[in-house]
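Exercise (ungraded).
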Amino acid sequence: MLKSRIAAAIIGTLMCFGAPGGASAQDTIKVGANLPMSGPNAELGEIFSRAASVAVKHINADKMLSKPLELAIEDSQATPQGGVVAMNKLVSVTKVPYVLSAYTAVSKAIAPIGDRAKVVSINGGAVGPDLAELGDYFWNVIPLVNFEAEVLIPFVVKEKGLKNIVLIFVDDPLGEAVQKVLRAEVPKAGGTLVGELQVQRATQQFASIAANVRQLKPDAIYIASFGTQVNQIIKQLRDNGVTQQLMSYSAMSTPSIAELPEAKGAWYTTQSADFTASALGQRVAKEYKDVSGKEANAYVANYYNAIMVFGILAQQLEKAGKPITGTNLLEQRRASPTFDLVGGKMTFQQNGTVSAPVQIREIDGTGTGKLVK
Amino acid sequence: MVFLQLFVNGLQLGAIYALTAVGFSLIFGSTKIFHVAHGSAFAISGYIYWWLASKLAVPWPVATLAAVVAAAVFGLFMERFIYRPIQRHEASFFTVFIAAFGVSLVIQNLIGTVAGRGMETVTTPLSRSIEIMDGLFVAPIAAISIVVAIVVFWALNYFLSRTHIGIAMRALSENPDLVRVFGLDPGRVAQWAFVIGSAVVVPGAIFTAMTAGLNPAIGTHVMLVSLAATIVGGIGSVRGAACGGLLLGLAENLAYWKLDPQWSEAVTFIVLFAFIVFRPSGFFGSPTAAK
């Protein structure tokens, strides 16, 4: 009796974990997702993973591949250390050829692992300009922040006459990248960067930052952070007497910022992602709303597109009788770099980046806000 | 004027830190349990208040009472169903620590699943600053935080020095066997410590919901502050935790006066480090010699 119980327990355990080379490993094609699923940046991780899951569902429903596609999600916690642990697991244990990435610091940390293992990492959320230089196996489906700043800064300085700008930026590769971009773009547009206030990633209190900002008397404040810290900065600046124009990059396009009363009137840049322009866009927007209850934004388009890029490339490889590996995916992307995705046609440059039209939106308390330019 | 502004901001933040830290110190002082899930009591009560006051438009006294009950029930749950069974079998510090840490992760994920993973705030005119002098902005909530902190510490002090259960809690921290000799149940006294220690975190949680906002992971930050304030104030000393919290809030804000903003949190830990090196017993802790 005891022996049979032990045998049943062993068999059950093996079934739960899946024996190497077992049926479950062969019956699906797996791609990885290295996203922040816990901690203060989990709101974005949830958006990214839901969008990717919608794409997986579409690929499977449309039978694009010979086997069902499966998404293996690991939690990066938006930290380089967490990202490296998650990437190692995805590469060495789950053995995926393709991994979704997010956050500049995480992406920079995992890129060498992907490069060594010849596993493609694809980013749809981080915008540090140096993400264009992380090697052949690191791709981006989001325009990087230099493209966003090139649109926003001339608009703010020249068209709106807000010449004196203060930058509040996070002590992180993303914040430092934005600092570098603004140092170049603001004077080029005829403005002055009157202050640069660096904050730590863990900082949650900004009343005294607000006092510093008031002293600097800017016309506008650019916030270069991410996750809930952006919400905290906006709220505490407004609560503490800062009335000037607030602006940021696509990190401001989260549902919780859209609902924040203090964020009303803030400008942010994001790539154009018109979900109404095509049947595919409408399908994605509807299904995303069904699973999340929220309106789809540019991040949804990016992570949906990132998975669809894999689906299309893998389909082409299967038709050509080639195995789905990181190396073959890279070769196939170079051979056919243009994809028909949410937002229209997207073409990868040789360095793995894409360019897309950038728009300026204003937060008005409704979904993704209103189009300013 | 900048110094005065930073000082006022520091007082407000210090009051919130003190309210947060004092519960942890009370629990640790009485029971010697390293209650790392204290931050979860903060998160639970903050979210309960936010949900009732912001989402259901329940009057604030009712929402506050519900938050107090939720925090107290959580504290009681931890003592009764997590710490006591562990202590019954094996009272290892690390077992207790890991169990509490595990609970805090579960709570963090539960809150994220139920309330969403973004930031939530309680919108109130009380958090909006008014320029009371040229360049000096003060929000009504700053004064309210300071007054509430004073009232809570006075009430806690009265409770610990004038009531039977309060005196028993102090005795428990000194000598549990003596508590038994006097016919009291140390388990029951420990339960009171958890209930009261968890409940006093509520004002800090509500003020944070109104000023900085809540997110499911906020408990981790709260725990760090509580631990730092407890060490600075003197481990186990309620009065010390209050002073430690106030000092850390002031240090974090006054750092902006001469240093770049990225140094503000580092200053907190420089203060902590200085205490560990030069006054390891903290403000009010009793010096002990290594045996």
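Further reading is listed at the end of the chapter. For now, observe: Chain A is about 45% helix and 20% strand. The radius of gyration of chain A is 22 Å.
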